[in-house]
Amino acid sequence: MTTGLALTGLMLAVTACSPGSDVRTAGTGPTGAMAGTGPVAVVASTDVYGNIVKTIGGDAVSVTSMINDPNRNPHDYAVDARNQLAMSEAQLVVENGGGYDDFVDTMLSTIKTRPTVVNVTAVSGYDAKPATGDFNEHLWYDLPTMIKLTSRLSSELTAAAPASARMIADNAADFTSRLRALEQTEASIETEHAGYGVAVTEPLPIYLLDAVGLSNKTPEAFSQAIEEGNDVAPAAMQQTLDLFGSGQVQLLAYDTQNAGPQPEAVLAAARDNDVAVVSFTETLPPGEDYLSWMRKNLQAVSAGLDASSRQ
């Protein structure tokens, strides 16, 4: 379904792993924390995963996050020399997979070292190539997958930094507990608002919206075109705009990092018809960690649905 993010500065042959693979190699990267003498060098494709690694690994890890600008469309990312160097020195790499960050596999194919690679799509257990429909690769909005990822990262980091095993285990347990609390928040919202209609400018937060029991009314042709950077066909555009005046949706989920004339027209239609709007991003907002970010997303969804129910 998705776009491969732009890759520049690497003009070498690509022998990348498949998007759904979960490459698990022995730690053959540079000596350091893998040998117990310093922090584990970790490269994450986005700051979302980088923050999760840091939360679990604490001082036992040194993290480089490649996509980390909340003001840019992540699909416009281009590899730079700093990130190429970090990848060549990495002992652990965390990628989303599922087609979202194929540039990671391309970079891995150009380095001599063989770091351990955690592919979140593989960790999720979801089918990245479903027989019908497209795979939603925005897995950081799926709390069950983040719980699985926490367990996997705890194991990998403990193996890489055994002297910090107790701290890593404690951090992972605390993080998992907080993720489960967020799941309870999702369940509470579902109890109040199951079946409410929602429109999206692209499928970014669908896992979260599904978890709170909302029904996605967006024409697939609209959200797919926006995600792939294409113009929306006039018929699909009109169908989407009609959702707001007809009362079919009580919430619009708006991706602020993938804006443009057509998403902005949908945003205007929602506001003109007093439909609640909740903004979502693909990377961490300034000053937020993963848990505070997801908590605020859920609070915003709940508040928007509450406002709609009072109309």
List the helices and strands and how they pair.
Blueprint: E1 40-46, H1 47-57, E2 61-67, H2 81-89, E3 92-95, H3 102-108, E4 116-119, H4 120-124, H5 143-160, H6 165-193, E5 197-200, H7 206-211, E6 215-216, H8 220-227, H9 234-245, E7 251-255, H10 261-272, E8 276-280, H11 290-310
Parallel strand pairs: 1-2, 1-3, 3-4, 5-6, 5-7, 7-8
Commentary on this structure:
With 311 residues, the chain is α/β, with parallel strands linked by helices. It folds into two domains: 33-181, 3-Layer(aba) Sandwich (Rossmann fold), CATH 3.40.50; 194-310, Rossmann fold (3-Layer(aba) Sandwich), CATH 3.40.50. It contains eleven helices and eight strands. The protein has helices spanning 47-57, 81-89, 102-108, 120-124, 143-160, 165-193, 206-211, 220-227, 234-245, 261-272, 290-310, and strands at 40-46, 61-67, 92-95, 116-119, 197-200, 215-216, 251-255, 276-280. The strands form two sheets. Strands 2-1-3-4 form a four-stranded parallel beta sheet, with helices on both faces. Strands 6-5-7-8 form a four-stranded parallel beta sheet, sandwiched between helices. Residues 1-21 and 23-35 have low confidence and may be disordered.
Throw out a few tags for this protein.
Rossmann fold; four-stranded parallel sheet; alpha/beta; 8 strands; disordered N terminus; 2 domains; 11 helices; 44% helix; globular; single chain; 311 residues
Which class of secondary structure composition applies to the elements? alpha/beta
End-to-end CA span:
37 Å
CATH class of the largest domain: Alpha Beta
CATH superfamily of the largest domain: Nitrogenase molybdenum iron protein domain
State which percent range the strand residues make up.
5-15%
Q: Estimate the mean pLDDT confidence.
A: 88
What overall form do the CA principal axes indicate? Answer: globular
- Helix content percent band: 40-55%
**CATH fold-level assignment of the largest domain:** Rossmann fold
Biggest β-sheet description: 4 strands, parallel
N-to-C series of helices and strands: EHEHEHEHHHEHEHHEHEH
Unreliable sequence segments: 1-21, 23-35
Task: Examine the secondary-structure arrangement and name the CATH architecture of the largest domain.
Answer: 3-Layer(aba) Sandwich
- Our count of domains comes out at 2
Q: Count the strands?
A: 8
- Largest beta sheet: strand ordering: 2-1-3-4
Treating each run of at least 4 consecutive H or I residues as one helix, how many helices?
11
Question: Cα-atom Rg, whole angstroms?
Answer: 20 Å
